[in-house]
Automatic annotation (TrEMBL):
GO biological process: dolichol-linked oligosaccharide biosynthetic process
Record's subcellular location: Endoplasmic reticulum
Name assigned to this protein: UDP-N-acetylglucosamine transferase subunit ALG13
Family: Belongs to the glycosyltransferase 28 family.
GO cellular component: endoplasmic reticulum
SUPFAM superfamilies attached to this UniProt entry: UDP-Glycosyltransferase/glycogen phosphorylase
Keyword Repeat part of the UniProt annotation: no
UniProt GO MF annotations: N-acetylglucosaminyldiphosphodolichol N-acetylglucosaminyltransferase activity
Enzyme class: transferase
PANTHER family, per the entry: GLYCOSYL TRANSFERASE-RELATED, N-ACETYLGLUCOSAMINYLDIPHOSPHODOLICHOL N-ACETYLGLUCOSAMINYLTRANSFERASE
Amino acid sequence: MCSIDRFKNILVTVGTTRFDQLISLLIDPKIVKILIEIGCRNLMIQYGNYFDPDALNLLKTLSEINVEIFDYVESLEPYIKQADLVIGHAGAGTSLEVLRMKKPLLIVINDSLMDNHQLELAEELAANGYAIATKIEDFDQTLKKFDQNILNPFPERNPLIFRDFLMNLTKSS
């Protein structure tokens, strides 16, 4: 299933929540092979509090993929704009930013979170067809088969919805 440059620029982000399982997968030769197969030429990794960022530097020497790694940036917007695919946790801020910019989103569920509101968000976004959600153990197959054509466009912002909600709320009081 080789598609030349289908996802030439890929952003992986974990936000501020530690997600070592996802970042560690990026060093796995099996995942690197899949990234190359789906056309990845540039991999941008926002690793957050990852325990071993030096290990990520191995990617720079072990594959033909150009790798840029960073812990945090003030804004992910330029990286999201450049990305053909965003892979990340289900943080509300990141997910909404990616979807509003009309970028395909592959959410990897972080099972290590105790009160996992991210799981609820991931399931809801996937149920509505706005993103694909996967568990860490299924990441390789989900990445390999990822098809952005099955995703629904995320709705545009509508500030009137909240205004109308407030107006209806005050009328019923």
